[in-house]
């Protein structure tokens, strides 16, 4: 079995406990001399003994169970390799699992083709063919082709794939078909599952007849499953205790988090290996730090899934309440997660070295940029490297919510409190590192998106806020994107090039800067003048905006001049820059014309929505992330479409299911109004909220009161902390009295 040295040593330590009992160093060493469990056992002997020392009192049966528990969580558990090569002749290994067809390079998994994406499996002599559904795109073609060693090997692998695909996708047992009278071409092999239990029966039609890909930013009404199930019946199906819904939230967000890790561990790794674009040293630094974390969370997710399955079930254990808790699972895994603190502390180095390498190596820079265009990379790539530390913050918030819900006498309270204590220790160690990393990530993101500056990531520089203002020019007020840093102010315009980047028109040093109101002088509402050593400019808030936050923020931030500031009248006259044709066209751009390049970065959304976001807002947004199913109303009918929704980075991302690798559509919430439906909307359903920006209106329905309140509380909380991005109305009936309306 292929696994890491750490896991191998842990497995052997449990085998020792099972074979010879409690730890005795001399007896352990003697046993290991006569029993070879590992190829490199001598090197790991110290680690094995260290683990065995911790198993005192464990019975042989418990030790054997632990061996199985650890083994089943390993990525290579149950995996049998089939040697093959791809179209380019690269040697690979194919394998089959419950998820789909897996592709390995050596022992590293580089791709997974989920059964939900597979339309047809076939073979021709030594060629094995996978035909995907039309909506599957990204780095793949419609038909994938692999070459195996012989026809017999190819046919054998095809049979295994058919068996797995049928077993894990079958709705009910197929009826036998009458044999054809005439000769038929092709194989007669069919998989006939006998005694298939309802637990393993999956509705194939619900997946294969799904909707066409949704459009962004406007969700399409075409296709999609229409849900008209009776609400009362659905509510009776699952437990209604708040602790259950909090546990379900842990499960939902853990699924999203694992998918985020796969963006680096699977997809990005595949891209750089294919092009041989990353130096070996950087490969080792990057993946040796994130692979163990990914492997750990794969096992953690399985544990949560099993617990929720038992919690929802109707077994005797469920009646007794033995499985109606999550604290024990969280405590065990939070303690195990502490072993990875050293990996998390290296993420600062990883992020820095990756940025240096992309500047130095043109090939890596090209692969990096091309990868960010893929649908699977739905956020700027380097944000995914921050996810492991940010996830600890999420655990802390969720466990805090559980502790507040439980009484001190509840059987799950002590475990939840101890788990919260463990994760709090980790977050306190990593808090300063996270703040520094988030700032560095934002600076590198802006470095990629801004044309005209090369050293944005200079040491000591901090990002403060980005947002839109209107600058006075010879042609009147022109929209500009402003970026405020700890040492300077940049203003830019959006170009119409294929890269969709922003062009810098000027940068002003904060040293010696002075700001004063000038509405009367220029007869422009919300107008103020910025005096700097380089030039003087006049800016204003758009008259049609309801929220003057950026202009107010900028005005009050710069109102007090730094030492040695020049008096207001000593500067030159207002400088008026000449507008280019590109600038004129870019100022008229609309959200409907945005290109695919990094379209979900906040700077692009701020440009189109005429709003602003600060670094403090970004930090709050990290804490307010949510995943779960919502029902979206069709525009011109009463039908509802079930979607997996991820709320992160001020944006809702929509998927068909939680297993999808990339979002079908996204809806940035900056500038949106959130409210309850009114009578004129004609919606007679519970747990519905309304999102509106100008003429764009969306209705979403939650499947439970808890999910409904969670989404709204998160949006309320984000808006309340950020002060700017969202507008809320019509929620006086909702008991969120602690959030000012």
From TrEMBL:
**Which GO BP annotation is one of this protein's?**
cell development
Q: What is this protein called?
A: FERM, ARH/RhoGEF and pleckstrin domain protein 2
Record organism: Catharus ustulatus (Russet-backed thrush)
Q: Where is this region: Disordered?
A: 564-597
PANTHER family xref list: FERM DOMAIN CONTAINING PROTEIN, FERM, ARHGEF AND PLECKSTRIN DOMAIN-CONTAINING PROTEIN 2
Q: Does the keyword Methyltransferase apply?
A: no
Q: Where is the composition biased (Basic and acidic residues)?
A: 583-594
What the entry lists under InterPro entries is as follows: Band_41_domain, DBL_dom_sf, DH_dom, FARP1/FARP2/FRMD7_FERM_C, FERM/acyl-CoA-bd_prot_sf, FERM_2, FERM_central, FERM_domain
Every FERM domain range? 1-172
Q: Name one GO cellular component term.
A: cytosol
Q: Which residues form the PH domain?
A: 623-720
Q: Which GO terms describe its molecular function?
A: guanyl-nucleotide exchange factor activity
């Amino acid at each position: 079995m292929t696994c890491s040295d750490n896991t191998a040593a842990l497995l052997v330590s449990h085998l020792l406990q099972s074979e010879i009992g409690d730890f005795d160093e001399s007896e352990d060493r003697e046993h290991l001399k006569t029993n070879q469990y590992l190829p490199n056992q001598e090197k790991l002997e110290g680690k094995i003994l260290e683990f065995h020392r911790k198993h005192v009192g464990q019975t042989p049966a418990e030790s054997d169970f632990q061996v199985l528990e650890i083994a089943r969580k390993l990525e290579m558990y149950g995996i049998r390799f089939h040697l093959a090569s791809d179209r380019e002749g690269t040697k690979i290994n194919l394998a089959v699992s419950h998820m789909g067809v897996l592709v390995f390079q050596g022992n590293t998994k580089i791709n997974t083709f989920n059964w939900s994406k597979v339309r047809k499996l076939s073979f021709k002599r030594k060629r094995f063919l996978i035909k995907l559904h039309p909506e599957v795109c990204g780095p793949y073609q419609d038909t994938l082709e692999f070459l195996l060693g012989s026809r017999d090997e190819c046919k054998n692998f095809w049979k295994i794939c058919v068996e797995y695909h049928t077993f894990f996708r079958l709705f009910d047992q197929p009826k036998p078909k009458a044999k054809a009278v005439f000769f038929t071409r092709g194989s007669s092999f069919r998989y006939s599952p006998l005694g298939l239990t309802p637990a393993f029966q999956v509705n194939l039609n619900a997946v294969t007849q799904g909707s066409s890909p949704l459009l962004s930013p406007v969700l399409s009404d075409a296709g999609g499953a229409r849900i008209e199930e009776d609400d009362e019946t659905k509510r009776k199906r699952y437990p209604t205790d708040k602790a259950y819904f909090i546990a379900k939230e842990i499960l939902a967000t853990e699924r999203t988090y694992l998918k985020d890790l796969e963006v680096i561990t699977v997809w990005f790794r595949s891209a750089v290996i294919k092009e041989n674009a990353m130096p070996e040293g950087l490969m080792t630094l990057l993946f040796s730090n994130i692979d163990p974390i990914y492997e750990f969370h794969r096992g953690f997710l399985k544990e949560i899934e099993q617990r929720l399955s038992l919690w929802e079930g109707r077994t005797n254990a469920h009646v007794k309440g033995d499985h109606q808790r999550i604290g024990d699972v969280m405590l065990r895994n939070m303690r195990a997660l502490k072993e990875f603190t050293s990996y998390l502390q290296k993420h600062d180095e990883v992020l820095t070295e990756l940025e240096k390498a992309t500047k130095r190596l043109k090939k890596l820079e090209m692969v990096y940029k091309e990868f960010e265009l893929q649908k699977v990379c739905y956020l700027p790539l380097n944000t995914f490297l921050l996810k492991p530390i940010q996830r600890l913050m999420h655990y802390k918030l969720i466990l805090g919510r559980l502790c507040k819900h439980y009484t001190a006498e509840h059987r799950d309270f002590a475990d939840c409190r101890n788990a919260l204590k463990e994760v709090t220790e980790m977050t306190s160690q990593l808090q300063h590192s996270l703040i520094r990393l988030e700032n560095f990530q934002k600076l590198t993101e802006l470095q990629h998106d801004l044309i005209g500056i090369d050293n944005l990531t200079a040491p000591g520089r901090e990002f403060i806020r980005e947002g839109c203002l209107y600058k006075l020019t010879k042609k009147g007020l022109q929209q500009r994107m402003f970026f405020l840093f700890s040492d300077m102010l940049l203003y830019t315009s959006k170009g119409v090039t294929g890269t969709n980047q922003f062009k810098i028109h000027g940068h002003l040093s904060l040293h010696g800067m002075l700001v004063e109101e000038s509405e009367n002088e220029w007869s422009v509402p919300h107008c103020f003048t910025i005096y700097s050593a380089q030039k003087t400019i006049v800016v204003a808030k758009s008259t049609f905006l309801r929220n003057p936050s950026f202009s107010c923020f900028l005005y009050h931030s710069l109102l007090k001049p730094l030492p040695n500031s020049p008096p207001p009248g000593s500067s030159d006259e207002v400088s008026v820059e000449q507008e280019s044709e590109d600038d004129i066209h870019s100022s008229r751009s609309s959200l409907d014309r945005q290109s695919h390049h990094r379209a979900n970065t906040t700077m692009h959304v701020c440009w189109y929505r005429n709003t602003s976001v600060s670094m403090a807002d970004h930090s709050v947004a990290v804490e307010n992330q949510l995943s779960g199913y919502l029902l979206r109303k069709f525009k011109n009918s009463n039908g509802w479409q079930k979607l997996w929704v991820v709320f992160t980075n001020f944006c809702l991302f929509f998927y068909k299911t939680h297993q999808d690798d990339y979002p079908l559509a996204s809806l940035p919430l900056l500038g949106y109004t959130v409210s309850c439906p009114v009578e004129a909307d004609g919606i007679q359903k519970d747990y519905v909220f309304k999102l509106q920006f100008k003429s764009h209106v969306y209705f979403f329905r939650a499947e439970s009161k808890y999910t409904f309140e969670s989404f709204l509380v998160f949006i309320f909380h984000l808006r309340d902390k950020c002060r700017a991005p969202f507008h809320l109305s019509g929620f006086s009936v909702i008991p969120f009295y602690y959030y000012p309306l």
